[in-house]
């Protein structure tokens, strides 16, 4: 046993060493300078070719003010909300520091400073590495600040260095950004709103930040802001910092902040490109929004200037020729969102996000959700049928030549033979765009003419969970999919972003290889790679069987050659695509691709007040807008320019897949009729081709392309080649059953979470 002298000596030595260590640590640190923290730096963005796109940031938004220019109400709002004992405490919360150290040792998240003094130190500590050394250094700085500076100086430093969102650092910048006035002129009620932002501007800015987090919509943020505003005023009153009269006056009316404003350089599509790239950086690094907005980063993007300009020009040209909002009220509030992605790579080369920040449009239409995709969802249903088969095919994949009833106003049958019912227990009927009696037609023909009833029944027969799984594998984010997997799920009630739809169709273009979309290739700071930005190029992976993907492509080529997407034939090269239109004509899409580019175009009307979708019936002076009309014109105009001079690579040949599995109840085929096929440049001829003709079906001339397994002689329209017959059916339009949508933001974005 050691003697008590030895134990005492060791204990005294340990305490002495600890005191010496604290003394050395205390002596080595210096107190922060709020002016250093407020130095302005730009973030510089670069095009894919390395040329500068834009430098963002301005010193105007980083202006320090003396404590005498900060209203007492602002000072007390912060103290009452965050650190009631500010004027009495030492400035350091030992328990909070201990928790942070323990969490760090366990590999968990550290917590912010729990006192205003510690938060001030954290604001000015420019190194953001989460290390034990940094945390101990912050502790020593906080202790020194608490002993060297008086409380007014600390409070001034804190309010001058805090981040209030929208790129505003410090109370003066926040007052100008949110209320267009100097800090000294803020009312107590306005002070409470700004103090609420310190809880987290992403979630407490009433303008919303859904581009960064899907839950931070304008409505949700305003509700959170109003709740915390009222609570802060109550705390100020309880702490005797507001008189009864001041409190009653302050809480009588919520002072709504000004809307967002365009900053220097953030005009046209640049604003949306920067928004997309910033979101990507925050999603793939430990950099916080506050740190990022301090500036000093160089962001290298995938955006190609020529293609961005070409996509913008395509939208503007079609807008100018087809829309006249000055003379037609139903042309008002029409918006477009579009994105273009490289198959097998995932690089976003171009996007169209809206009219620009300078015109008050701050939502990135290329990377937000809330616009149902309609019939552009049907390829996922077909792919799922090819992969999983139906409950009636024993798991064997279904051929696109399988026949389903294409008539209008049909009951939808469950696998057990019963029918779907509405909420009032009445029978549910699925409708088409037209009452035309198609009879039993192939899935290939149903895709060509975008007929709803076959795909709704097919989706049920395959299983909507399988449809969802295929869409997810192709690149659609689960959070953007409709939660209700009812029959209408098969015809596009989900609301992915334009970027995600372009990326998902790129999976078909790449014969089933999927690569996540990305917009940034590198982030640098101080001349070196930002250490926390981890951006390996997304590795393509086989998400869909190549034969299935190529068969989907073959069917979608036919949509352009003979179906609802015929206006895309003006591209003059091999392409595949699908139109989409939703119930009540609230949105219209065209998504199409070649091997080089996959591009999606969405069109919709939105009430600027409540952001609910409006019907486009009557827009552009026509009864209704369909995906095969204006969206297809925009797509074609852009793709002609973007692919100018590029080779027509065509697509890999699609080999026969699955088995013909007609819908239960389909009539037995009548004797086949031999058909001599015509040869097309893209198809290898076969000696003969035939297909049973179901009964009943519309009478029509029968034509067929050179591949017998593609031959479709039902419905009166050639479905295989580029030189086939025409249909006696109604005009080629499509619609699917979705209605009453309020446009959301973010959850259909590239990332879907805090990064958007």
UniProtKB/TrEMBL annotation:
Q: Where is the Glycosyl transferase family domain?
A: 53-236
Question: Which domain of life does the protein's organism represent?
Answer: Bacteria
Enumerate the spans annotated as Penicillin-binding protein transpeptidase domain.
341-604
Where do Low complexity bias regions lie?
A: 671-703
Q: Which residues cross the membrane?
A: 7-29
Keywords associated with the record: Carboxypeptidase, Glycosyltransferase, Hydrolase, Membrane, Multifunctional enzyme, Protease, Transferase, Transmembrane, Transmembrane helix
Record region (Disordered)? 654-756
State the protein's name.
Penicillin-binding protein
Source organism per entry reads: Streptomyces incarnatus
